[in-house]
Serum amyloid A protein
Amino acid sequence: MKLFTGLILCSLVLGVHSRWFSFLGEAYEGAKDMWRAYSDMREANFKNSDKYFHARGNYDAAQRGPGGAWAAKVIRETIPRVTDFFQHGDSGHGLEDSRADQAANEWGRSGKDPNHFRPAGLPDKY
């Protein structure tokens, strides 16, 4: 009986442990997807393309699984608020644009096609 109980306990611990590592792996890969979208946006330097890259980065990260979606949410909703505060203080400057970015982020994370935000003329490379 003790052996059986021990085996059940070990399998539960290993199962949870395995899911935790899977989540972390998804989060890591999702963060890389977000970085790739940011790098592409900087490289493209294309007018009115930021919403597309926001949606694409979130979409790619969310496709990794729950960990990727979590990483996308943390990256896109925490970092901009901190950087906006240091750039503009609490003046509300850029609030409308920030809300539009958040809408594009949610669009991508929800699995909708990021090409909805793709501006005409953006090179196919992106």
In short: The chain has one domain: 1-117. The chain has a mean pLDDT of 83. The helical segments are 2-44, 50-62, 66-88, 95-109.
